[in-house]
């Protein structure tokens, strides 16, 4: 979705539309009072409400609770004229007064807390703010599935409470689950990182936290499953170029970009989190993206929408456009030289149920009258949409949440969860001589310097609402020490040397110096990709000068989403410790201080590879392939395919204690039966490899329902402080299979282990899912032979072989 402020086309047009829309949608109540509620009703099918409108509710079958939602939705749609139907096809649904259907703005956001982006929810006197959790890249670094779900539950509780107070909708277009393919991408902060499986697990947990009503996690007919709020996985698919200035003046933005993607990369990387979100998370909405895939704008691609999402994955919900993406198809992509009527007809037929902005509302009526599309296709789309509004209680209410109110928003419990999430997401990158944690006796006069030392809104990233309150790094550190503060750089651009010297001076006398550096939305954001991986302006010079002059230990704290080139500080003896904190949300300062002073032992891991600076000189942002391209000299992308040097690898993160692994499970093989008449599948091997007689099986040909792989890892904390540790399990396919990933994450668990104690992390896996690879021709295949399982990576990793055999009922 377009950012809340920008001046480049088409967002400016779009902003204007938002403004007009906002005025219209609030017009009902009082367009001059910013504190008026957005919704004057709690739910639609209330007989008193109908009476006040001069209507008799009993006449309207769509309010008959004894009928199934699908029947009620059809009754509603069947009672509308074509013009009335078309009025409901955009996010600013006009409502139908004669039927007692009010206006509804479908567009609310809840990426890491209830936001007011989109206008379907707002902050005012009624609800001044909501808990702003860490940005997803920070929460992702916690590698804690319970945390992701718990945050989702807290956010949906605040959303329902706001809805009860008339200031929030019930349809939220979050989370953003695009895989981070390139370190320059501006929207890394919104995502859970570069591994498709981790991103998929984040999606499933966050969506379940937002959507699930306790006791209704599954139902016989999932189209009737009640929802706490409706979530949306976006942006589908292969969307991760925003606005990139390449060397030589080449510029490409998301409105004009066609991603050239192989089917292998689609299945393995770009679609996988969406598949998990729909199948395992049972999300109630998917949003298509601005870009094209192989020349076809995703929102008009019937194969991707109707075929894959609704057909193959069986979505229970609606497919929505990114904002103004039909306009983008016509005016920017100029796809097939379509007129607006052609375009709305195509996207509707392709499976798009709801538009964001007004292209459907403006052109669908004429497109239907001119015979370009069937009116019945509009009916189907509206029925998909209304069923979700019924499931979420907009028609009948959701009594389980009636009692939620202001006390459930910014509650002490939620603010503590935001603090804990930030603590869990902190990644310790360097800690020479165990300089951290600092000590309140030895380090009671400290210097806090750098452009982010007093960060507030920067910690929220984007798609934020108004937070409950802020704890800046200065606030947090002041709870432990007397803090002298000078920014050294006025902002992240850091273009004025004048401010550096005073900051250097205060570090000369401090017991310890903490430098807060990094990026913000001026460098990495929606519609803003990076062109290099360096810290901006004079930040390096500033850090260097402070570090060399400082009396006490020096701790560098980086706020950023994507990796930054800090190779120099990684090896510099002047920098004793480095922490990466992402954009840690409203309580970031408390969390950082708790880690620095040892109240919390850090256990986060990098969710993206930190490439060396020269990486981005080796390949353009527009090369979509994950595998290296030796002909063009492109290195691979992500830890799965990039074998070159890094500043810090994916999954890196230290602790104040030490952990060792012992694999205690004894299973070292699995035997799968190939069904009658099924064939062994051939893979491509390099010449020196051992090739088993039956090389692989297509996963669809196997029975894969049970967890047939059990791996138990004993994690022992050999140090003197308690700590949480992330156990990451990787699999590597048998040697010699061409194109197989270097390794891939198949499971992860964050476990708390007290000092001197041990805990078992148990993994129950399906060999078909966890040990399979995606072949060059896009089959998901399970290779026979000796796979390698690695527990953790780097020095402490433990590896063991794991055999896959096939038993055939019939010879091949
Ligand atoms: C609601 O639908 C049921 C089932 O079709 C029907 O028996 C009942 O009469 C309807 N109620 C009203 C008020 O129309
Ligand atoms: C995971 O997150 C949950 C929810 O915040 C928390 O209670 C738990 O302690 C975390 N687990 C670990 C091992 O840190
Ligand atoms: C994608 O492929 C098309 C057709 O081969 C080509 O014209 C276009 O330049 C390619 N785009 C990129 C970004 O590689
Ligand atoms: C719809 O069609 C009518 C007559 O064909 C035309 O006057 C009108 O301008 C069209 N509306 C739009 C939005 O194109
Ligand atoms: C903190 O520093 C003081 C003074 O240097 C020292 O006596 C004490 O042992 C230290 N405490 C810890 C926990 O290291
Ligand atoms: C820190 O930032 C807050 C909010 O912008 C501001 O009110 C406060 O004065 C700043 N503190 C210092 C010491 O500059
Ligand atoms: C740097 O800041 C100083 C003090 O505010 C100001 O006088 C000077 O003009 C600035 N220099 C630049 C290059 O902006
Ligand atoms: C790393 O990948 C590149 C690109 O495919 C390849 O040429 C090189 O041989 C690989 N290096 C190692 C050590 O595997
Ligand atoms: C080919 O496979 C062998 C092991 O069978 C391995 O040592 C070698 O690195 C592989 N070569 C390539 C180019 O992948």
From TrEMBL:
Domain Fibronectin type III-like span(s) in chain numbering: 725-795
Native source species: Ananas comosus
Keyword DNA repair: no
Protein's name according to its UniProt entry: Probable beta-D-xylosidase 5
Pfam family, one: Fn3-like
Signal sequence interval, chain numbering: 1-27
SUPFAM superfamilies: (Trans)glycosidases, Beta-D-glucan exohydrolase, C-terminal domain
InterPro entries xref list: BXL, Fn3-like, GH, Glyco_hydro_3_C, Glyco_hydro_3_C_sf, Glyco_hydro_3_N, Glyco_hydro_3_N_sf, Ig-like_fold
GO molecular function list: alpha-L-arabinofuranosidase activity; xylan 1,4-beta-xylosidase activity
Chain's gene name: LOC109718279
Keywords: Glycosidase, Hydrolase, Signal
Source taxon at top rank: Eukaryota
GO aspect biological process, one term: arabinan catabolic process
